[in-house]
Amino acid sequence: MKLKHLFLILCVLGIILPYSAYMPYFMQYGFDLKDFITQAFADPIGAFLSWDLVIAALTAVVFIIAEGKKLSIKYFWLPILCMIFIGAAFGFPLFLYLRELQLEKKRK
């Protein structure tokens, strides 16, 4: 299996698995960003995971911008938007997929 295919699989998992956990919460409470953040940081384990995700996502954004410009990746900004509006588990593998496509193109 090519690496780019693995990144596509991770994109799919990165949208299905988080949203399968989130949708029951959303159906019960609706979309309330303040309540969502309060719940995410409600206990030490949640706070640990939330901060871990925030730092990892910020690091990914810096990497996406730097690598996207360095390799002249078209639409490198799209994964950043996906990270903001969908989730880091979707947006970052999407960038890695686009990066692999660009690297393949440069190799040929």
* Terminal Cα span: 19 Å
- The rounded Rg comes to 16 Å
Number of helices: 5
Strand content: under 5%
User: Unreliable runs, pLDDT <50, ≥5 residues?
Assistant: none
What composes the largest sheet?
none
Average pLDDT for all residues? 95
State the helical fraction: over 70%
Secondary structure: elements and pairs:
Blueprint: H1 3-29, H2 33-40, H3 44-70, H4 77-85, H5 88-107
Helix pairs in contact: 1-5, 3-4, 3-5, 4-5
Molecular structure report:
There is one protein chain. The chain has helices spanning 3-29, 33-40, 44-70, 77-85, 88-107. With 108 residues, it is mainly alpha-helical. It has one domain. Helix 3 (44-70) runs antiparallel to helix 4 and helix 4 (77-85) runs antiparallel to helix 5. The mean pLDDT is 95.
Structure summary:
With about 110 residues, the protein is an all-alpha fold. It has one domain (about 5-105).
Note the main attributes of this structure.
5 helices; 108 residues; mainly alpha; single chain
